[in-house]
Amino acid sequence: MIEQQTLFVEIVRDGALFAECTSGLRLRKYQIDVARAIIESVIFERGLTFVVIFPRQSGKNELQAQIETYLLTVLSQLDTEMVKASPTWKPQTINAMRRLERVLARNLITRNRWVKESGYIYRFDSARIFFLSGGDTANVVGATANTLLECDEAQDISVSKWDKDFAPMAASTNATRVFWGTAWTSRTLLARELRAAKEAQGRDGIRRVFHIDASHVAKEVPAYGKFVAEQVQKLGMNHPLIQTQYYSKEIDAEGGMFPDYRQRLMKGYHSFQDAPSPGCVYAIAIDVAGEDEGRMTEDGSQTLANQGRDSTALTIFEVDLSTVSDPLIRAPVYKVVSRMVWTGKKHTTLYSVLRSLIDLWSPRYVVVDST
Question: pTM score, two decimals?
């Protein structure tokens, strides 16, 4: 291990040299800082927990693949097992595997020598990395991360899933853990780990938090800065997507997504309706939830098998087109005239209900599960 540690120190002291050792790609400075910290923790068995928050399209996934390839190479003669979790199998886990394959194929050391096993394990000599889905229903118990445990897009993996199924994987060796993601609300797994990492960082001074925003990226990639500036011009600096996806700031659903000024814009003075009015234009939006077969209770009533089940929601809008010609608005006004919610309803039954409502209202558009 001493020889490997010496090689590692020589490599990571020079960012360009580190990048060349992986795949010939020159990493950016903010990427190199992250790579150095994670790899040092792994090689020297420090067992640190890192939180890495990057804005969208700033090289987070490429950096992950570079680090993974490097560790597979340096630790190839050891019984090394790494685990990487993504919120879904398709497309996120599959995309992560494809990116690693691309780096492995470009690397002069690993090219033509790495092996894919069982469809989700990548091996280079004795070192392996396992790619797993972090979805709530994914069966992942049994894997071990004795070297590195990664959580990608940690803001989208549930806290309970992580704590129950993934966190124990690092226990036997106190393996290094990395939570990667993009800012969202203060209630996510990413936000929780961010708070914990900041506290630990404050106690011992060892950097664990890498909080990068669009301004950091723009210094090294001017084209990125130009793109973000155009988005800010279009949506406004206070738009939730600008704040979270590009400037890495958390928002809360109550305060960030729906501040007072936005709630005032949402307030209407029209009445709810049971049926359409002649001559009006309507649209229907449907958010589909999972069905639930339920179970019988002792008193003979039926309850949901999953008490946390979300609901299928339908919203009917009257589309007021008169405001399109208003020079200050130039857009339709959408008046919510009816709302319906079904929890645990079987989709086969719900389909006929939705069909009858669509027939009744004759909407211009029906939008299903779309942002």
Answer: 0.69
